[in-house]
Design brief:
By secondary structure, the chain is mainly alpha-helical. The chain has two helices and no strands. It has one domain. 4% of the residues are buried.
Length: 70
């Protein structure tokens, strides 16, 4: 994956994480921390974070040319 593709991928995941967190926080502020809407929002947040973590964890960084190897 090129650095540009990585940045694009992470940006997409970051936007979804922020949107999912905003939905959860909106429900918290409304005092709606149970029920169907809460379940959907918290599942969305969990999935968004899982996808973001997966994208971060699966990055392949090529070894730099001439880099020291211990």
């Amino acid at each position: 994956m090129s650095p540009e593709d990585f940045k694009k991928d992470i940006s997409i995941h970051s936007v979804e994480v922020l949107a999912a967190i905003a939905d959860v926080m909106r429900l918290v502020n409304e005092g709606r921390t149970s029920g169907a809407a809460w379940d959907l929002a918290s599942d969305r947040q969990d999935e968004a974070i899982r996808r973001w973590r997966s994208a971060i964890d699966n990055v392949q960084i090529p070894a730099a040319v001439g880099a020291r190897r211990d």
